[in-house]
Amino acid sequence: MAIQIDLRVPPCAPVSEVAKFVGLCEEAGFDGVGILDSQMLERDVFVSMAVAAQATSRIRLASAVLNPMTRHLSVIASAAKTVSELAPGRVEFWIGRGFSSVQTIGIPPATVRQMRRCVVTLKSLLSGEDVSFNGATSRMRHGDDDLPRIFIAAHGPRTIEVAGEVADGVLLQVGIHPASVEVARRHLEIGAKRAGRNPDDLEIILCATTIILDDQQEAREAARPLCVQRLMEESHAPYLHAAGIEAGDLEIPRAALDELYPDIPHAEDWEKAKELCAFLPDDILAQLCDAIGLIGTPDYCAQQLRKAEANGIKHLYLMTGETYQFPHRELQAFRDTIFPALGRV
User: Fold this and answer.
1) Alpha-helical segments (H) within the chain
2) Which residues, at least 6 apart from 194, have a Cβ–Cβ distance to it below 8 Å?
């Protein structure tokens, strides 16, 4: 089976335009799209998914990603069920701890325990089972056995293990280097076996940071802030170490980077973000770009995808660098160059 490829789509415009772009993704040959959920930066994820579902017929639609902190679980469950009824078998929900959605309103991300409870409770609600909230026991009247799949987005070991215990699959944010993926797989297996589940039954989707330009170095320059973000988060260290990337002696201007609004990956001023990240040596930048995803020219990215397939990777989510506009550039590169190079026409 050919590697499945999903594209990140920010709902950065009125939902009619979001739906139109998702339609273009379907026509281009993508298997799925992940629609961002960040209430202060984007349009509503559930409304965007619903309109996109009505505008398409084949492509899978996923929330990328929900969190249990900004909505009550009963609200998430009802919205998820409503959207999934519009496109049976094509809708799934990815749930994480919360990033820009919680940072912009000053609340903490979900704990690992809250993530576990979130998935277990959502499955009960969607099934129409009784659930207790603050002493009140109730059920969702429109719940039934037709459940959409629920994935946990994770890179921390404990969260990956929880995905192995309770989720239908995992969205791994560990890059695409085979050694990094193996580190994460071991944690997924630990969680699955702890719950008496077969880890082979769980689907693994790998996040691939994706920036495609006609010039290789220009693409890497555009990815500088995203690479620096990986270095700043200690939870990514085991995966970078496994990929042979050592940058512990770098002096990172954390105070200056913390001033980027709302954060580094979603910075509104990308040129300023690149300037602040100029300290990163070019050789480490190149290593990071290859380890975390598909960054380069269309031909180079096609080569990287062939390597990914050879390494046994079956499903990629292309996490493009665009937050406030649609990734037309990456869509065009896949439609015109990469998909034909992979024999997908």
Assistant:
1) 15-28, 45-55, 73-86, 100-103, 112-126, 157-166, 178-194, 216-222, 224-232, 237-242, 254-257, 270-276, 282-292, 298-310, 328-333, 339-341
2) 161, 164, 165
The structural domains of the chain, with segments of one domain joined by +, span 4-216+294-341
Q: What is the mean pLDDT of residues 95-124?
A: 95
What is the spatial distance between Cα 40 and Cα 53, in angstroms, rounded to a whole number? 23
Q: Is 194 helix (H, G, I), strand (E, B) or coil?
A: helix
Q: What is the pLDDT of residues 63-83, one digit of tens each?
A: 999 999 999 999 999 999 999
CATH topology classification for 4-216+294-341: TIM Barrel (3.20.20)
**Residue 311: its pLDDT value, please?**
93
Residue 25 CB contacts under 8 Å (≥ 6 apart), including other chains? 7, 9, 33, 59, 331
User: How distant is the alpha carbon of residue 47 from its chain centre?
Assistant: 19
Alpha-carbon distance of 296 to 286, in angstroms, equals 10
Instruction: Give ∠ CA 335-18-173 in degrees, rounded to 5.
Output: 70
pTM over 0.85: yes
312: left (phi > 0), else alpha (psi -120 to 50), else beta? left
How far is Cα 91 from Cα 199, in angstroms, rounded to an integer? 22
Question: ω before 253 within 30° of 0 (cis)?
Answer: no
29 Rama class: left (phi>0) / alpha (psi -120 to 50) / beta:
left
How many other CB atoms are found less than 10 A from the CB of residue 188?
24
Alpha-carbon distance 204 to 158, whole Å? 16
Element (H, E) at 133: strand 131-133
Residues 6+ apart with CB under 8 A from 33: 6, 7, 8, 9, 22, 25, 52, 59, 60, 61, 62
CB-based burial, 286-307: b 16+ in 10 Å, e otherwise: bbbbbbbbbbbbbebbbebbee
- pLDDT tens-digit map of 237-295: 999 999 999 887 888 998 889 899 998 988 999 999 999 999 999 999 999 999 999 99
Q: Are 164 and 198 in contact (CB under 8 A)?
A: no
- Res 55: pLDDT: 97
